[in-house]
Amino acid sequence: MTRLPSAQSLVQDSADLARTLGHPHRLSLLEHIAQGERAVESLAQLSGLSVANASQHLQHLKRAGLVQTRRDGKRVLYRLGDGPILPLLAALREFSEQQRHRVQTMVDDSVYQPDTLEAIDCDALLQRLQDGDVTLLDVRTEADYTLGHLPGAINIPFEELAQRLAELPADRPVVAYCRGPHCLLSHDTVIALRARGLEALRLINGYPQWQAAGLAVETGPAVQSLT
User: Fold this and answer.
1) What are the residue boundaries of the Rhodanese domain, all occurrences included (predicted)?
2) Residues 111 and 68 in one domain
3) Do 61 and 147 belong together in one domain?
4) Most buried pick, 86, 150, 151, 227, via CB within 10 A?
5) Residue after which a domain boundary falls, among 65, 80, 95
6) Considering the entire predicted model, what is its pTM?
């Protein structure tokens, strides 16, 4: 008869998982892998690590079941493992932010006025996309966008936003999204666009959560302009 794991062994497993996640490089790697399947060389570059260092951290994540691999010729590609990994990462971020009072700090700061925090969820966005009355803006990197993005989104990485404002139609609101609910890029995009007189709001969730919900996504290079 198969023996069920004891409460103590489950606690130990949880502790082992927490120990695996207890390194900023591994959390950074998981965030990049959540955007789409990538090779170790790409992950190393995105995370600012050497290939050897990135590979070592990825092996820890793989042993814990947090990532999986497949071979593509000579390359080994990494993707998220099975299970509720995205909610786990989101919960870690949320708790960390709560502890540091980041949300309260942003609300109190004169730059981050409460109205700039306006956001919509996936259901509301789907309705507005169906009505055709918004411009969907992906402010992640072009590499992230190419791996997968929301249907119809244009890609203007946040650092290029000031130089490419003319690519955004001025006759309808802009909905910005980025890597996840606690990624500040979409938040800062809304502030920047509103400062220039454009109507803008952000998607509460990011691309990984949209994809995890089973909603339609697209892949391929960025659309340069809608104007």
Assistant:
1) 130-219
2) no
3) no
4) 150
5) 80
6) 0.67
Neighbours of 27 (CB within 10 A): 16
Radius of gyration of the chain from Cα atoms? Answer: 19
Residues 127 and 203 in one domain: yes
For the chain, the domain total comes to 2
Domain range spanning residue 153? 106-212
Residue type, 162: A
183 is catalytic: no
At residue 120, the 3 state secondary structure works out as: strand
- Note whether 204 and 114 are same-domain residues: yes
- Which among 216, 208, 220 is positioned nearest to 87, based on CA atoms? 208
Asked if residue 221 is part of any domain, the answer here is no
Question: Which pLDDT score is estimated for 94?
Answer: 80
Closest by alpha carbon to 35, among 138, 121, 148?
A: 148
pLDDT in tens, 160-169: 999 999 999 8
Cα(165)–Cα(170) distance, rounded to whole angstroms?
Answer: 9
Alpha-carbon distance of 53 to 161, in angstroms, equals 33
Choice among 80, 174, 178, 183 that is catalytic: 178
Task: Give, in order, the Cα–Cα distances in Å from 93 to each of 27, 64, 98, 159.
Answer: 10, 20, 8, 23
Query: Does 199 lie in the same domain as 131?
Result: yes
CATH number of the domain within which 47 lies: 1.10.10.10
Give tens-digit pLDDT for 44-79.
999 999 999 999 999 999 999 999 999 999 899 999
